[in-house]
């Protein structure tokens, strides 16, 4: 079967709803005393072309005002209203925030902080995931919702809780943690002692019940303990989430479930993703910063979209975003005209089948009253934001045919949460400049600038289908990643690694016998003997011969690893300065049918861009749009495919007009205007996005 035929469109995510989803968080429970406003919502939703709403996030108190007293009528009415209006409902389980009676009756639900102080009632996202009482109450509530609405025509899918996160250190969680450890270490305390290197500072444990979760006033010096604690927190959160999923799936087995992620919540989302049907996330980039171009922000946002898509390798949902501004950034700047459409379609370009906002209508009071919304306090459609949302609604209406198509990448960046935890916790390097995620994003950005599609994966994911795998700062090698990296290169893949690779195993024990450990030295072709951390103002440099272009000198900052080439390793560039002047900074090592490149120092993005551009050419790694002459900076082209259709997204993140020149004339249809592309030039206004289809 040809590759084109295997790329089928995915089925609709919302039940019986084969459309691009346009909607967001709707909180009628906050407006029950204003039927006039609820009525107006109907009119305005129609006007703005919203076809879906997310209901019931944080509405527990409105459903169960006192323990065992239920008031579902408002939700019944809202569900009916949505069905009448032809809108789908993404129905949330309300476990993200609790009514006061719940904490009053059972204080064990109140989360305990790392310093062992117990929270008071308040805020949200602050319950104990272990508490049997909380689990019972959530189970009952979720089942009640599922039973009540299982056959409701508006019900499209489940939104499980909201942005799970945080950790609880209460006695119940301590017990659960110890049980988790007993299982992991086969009830053998010596196995744990070995894994955590507890000979250090007299830390050897005699019994599992001597172990406590990390605390600022207690144990925080055993890295293996810290890592296992974070793994346990993910495990316990996932376990809680799975219970919620079971509660609704028992009654509605055919409805899909998701839970909304954030950019980073300290959880290993790859683990949670195994238990949801669809990945969704809440994206709130800070556009229009003074010291950062929108193109840079776009690259970073694209990295996260690609990571969340990669978790299931199929379409995801943009669950939340703001149509205008947020109220929690350092400076809450408005999205400039055009940016809401551009950033929303950017999510779609990277694989989202929705654009959804937090929130439909600005609240009258409390913490989020000045957070962006489609409807402002003036309550009308006569705002810039509403009108732009309406334009986007019209545009999305024309995007239905690309729903269910997917992005197919031949390059992957490994960005691994557990590796992040280990790097952040490590004592060493330079505390301020470790910047693991930033480093991954900078490598990604170099490919993004060339409009080369990338997956962003963790180290448990298969590597076989890629031509290029980039693994920046892969400090920790867990599972069989070293073996799979070796096979990948042996079989013809191209691997790029950097300084700080292969130092420790999964419990943070250093590999003996030289870094990169676990047999990776023979693949990468270098031995890293030492690493130099630079002061923020320090610079070194190296000079690299970039293919046919003249030699160029690149600045080096933060980290310079001192590496020795092994047999057959070609040195591509050497340090220009310091006592390691003349030693390798960039190397290349053939292994099996493939090639391993190693970048021993932290460079500016400029080097990464030149390096990956040449590398992509050498290994024939195609861009998303190979028909263009050079793409101008700040223009990104993404591609989605399915059922033989190909969609190209041209996005201009610059504040000036740009054009893309084509090498040849090709048949492309602009899906917004419906017109065929004329000539050999694609023009893009500032912050404009255009989608073209080719069959
Ligand atoms: C998160 C939450 C929402 C809201 C927004 C504000 O994404 O899920 O409830 O608080 O942030 O940006
Ligand atoms: Zn707890």
Describe this structure in words.
The protein is of the alpha/beta class. The protein has 18 helices and 25 strands. The strands form 5 sheets. The protein has an 8-stranded parallel beta sheet. Helix 7 (171-184) packs across helix 9 (223-249) and helix 9 (223-249) runs antiparallel to helix 14. The relative contact order is 0.09. The structure holds alpha-D-galactopyranose (GLA) and zinc ion (ZN). Residues 162-163, 282, 284, 320, 326, 358, 368, 371 line the site of alpha-D-galactopyranose.
Strand content: 15-25%
Number of DSSP helical runs: 18
Total DSSP E strands: 25
Main sheet: strands, sense, barrel: 8 strands, parallel
Globally, the shape reads globular
User: First CA to last CA: what distance?
Assistant: 18 Å
Strand order of the largest sheet: 7-6-5-4-3-2-1-8
Structural class: alpha/beta
Low-confidence segments, given as residue ranges, are: none
């Amino acid at each position: 079967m040809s590759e084109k035929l295997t790329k089928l469109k995915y089925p609709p995510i919302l039940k019986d709803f084969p459309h691009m989803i346009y909607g967001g968080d709707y909180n009628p429970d906050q407006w029950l005393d204003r039927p006039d406003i609820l009525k107006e919502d109907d009119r305005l939703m129609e006007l703005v072309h919203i076809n879906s709403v997310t209901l019931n996030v944080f509405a527990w108190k409105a459903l169960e005002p006192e323990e065992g007293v239920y008031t579902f009528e408002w939700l019944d009415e809202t569900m009916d209203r949505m069905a009448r209006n032809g809108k789908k409902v993404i129905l949330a389980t309300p476990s993200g925030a609790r009514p006061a009676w719940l904490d009053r009756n059972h204080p064990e639900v109140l989360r305990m902080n790392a310093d062992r102080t117990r929270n008071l009632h308040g805020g949200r996202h602050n319950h104990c995931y272990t508490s049997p009482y909380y689990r019972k109450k959530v189970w009952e509530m979720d089942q009640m919702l599922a039973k009540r609405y299982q056959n409701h025509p508006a019900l499209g899918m489940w939104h499980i809780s909201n942005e799970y996160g945080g950790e609880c250190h209460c006695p119940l969680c301590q017990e659960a943690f110890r049980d988790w450890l007993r299982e992991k270490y086969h009830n053998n305390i010596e196995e744990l002692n070995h894994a955590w290197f507890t000979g250090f500072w007299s830390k050897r444990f005699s019994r599992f019940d001597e172990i406590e979760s990390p605390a600022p006033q207690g144990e925080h010096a055993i890295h293996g303990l810290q890592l296992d604690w974070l793994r346990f927190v993910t495990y316990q959160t996932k376990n809680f989430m799975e219970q919620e999923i079971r509660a609704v799936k028992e009654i509605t087995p055919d409805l899909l479930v998701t839970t909304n992620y954030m950019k980073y919540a300290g959880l290993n989302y790859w683990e949670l993703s195994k238990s949801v049907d669809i990945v969704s996330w809440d994206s709130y980039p800070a556009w229009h910063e003074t010291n950062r171009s929108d193109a840079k922000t776009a690259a970073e946002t694209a990295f996260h979209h690609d990571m969340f898509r990669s978790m299931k390798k199929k379409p995801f949902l943009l669950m939340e975003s703001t149509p205008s501004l947020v109220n929690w950034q350092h400076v809450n700047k408005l999205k400039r005209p055009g940016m809401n459409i551009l950033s929303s379609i950017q999510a779609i370009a990277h694989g989202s089948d929705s654009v959804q906002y937090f929130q439909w209508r600005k609240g009258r009071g409390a913490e989020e009253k000045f957070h962006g919304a489609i409807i402002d306090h003036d309550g009308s459609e006569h705002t810039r934001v509403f009108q732009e949302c309406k334009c986007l609604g019209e545009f999305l209406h024309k995007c239905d045919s690309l729903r269910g198509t997917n992005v197919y990448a031949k390059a992957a960046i490994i960005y691994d949460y557990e590796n992040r935890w280990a790097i952040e916790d490590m004592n060493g390097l330079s505390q301020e400049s470790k910047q693991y995620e930033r480093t991954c994003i900078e490598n990604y950005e170099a490919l993004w600038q060339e409009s080369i599609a990338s997956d962003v994966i963790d180290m448990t994911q298969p590597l076989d289908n890629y031509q290029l795998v980039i693994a920046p700062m892969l400090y920790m090698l867990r599972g069989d990643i070293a073996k799979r990296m070796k096979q990948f290169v042996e079989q013809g893949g191209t691997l790029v690694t950097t300084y700080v690779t292969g130092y420790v195993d999964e419990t943070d024990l250093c590999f003996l016998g030289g870094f990169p450990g676990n047999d990776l030295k023979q693949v990468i072709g270098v031995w890293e003997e030492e690493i130099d951390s630079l002061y923020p103002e320090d610079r070194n440099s190296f000079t690299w011969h970039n293919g046919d272009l003249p030699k160029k000198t690149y600045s080096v900052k933060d980290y310079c690893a001192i590496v020795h080439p092994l047999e057959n390793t070609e040195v591509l560039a050497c340090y220009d300065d310091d006592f390691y002047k003349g030693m390798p900074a960039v190397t290349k090592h053939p292994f099996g049918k493939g090639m391993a490149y190693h970048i021993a120092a932290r460079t500016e993005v400029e080097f990464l861009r030149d390096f990956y551009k040449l590398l992509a050419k050498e290994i024939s790694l195609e861009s998303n749009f190979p028909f263009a002459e050079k793409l101008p900076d700040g223009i990104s082209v993404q591609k989605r495919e399915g059922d033989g259709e190909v969609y190209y997204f041209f996005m201009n993140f610059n504040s000036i007009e740009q054009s893309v020149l084509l090498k040849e004339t090709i048949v492309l249809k602009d899906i917004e205007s419906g017109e065929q592309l004329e000539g050999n030039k694609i023009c893009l206004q500032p912050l404009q996005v255009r989608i073209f289809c080719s069959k």
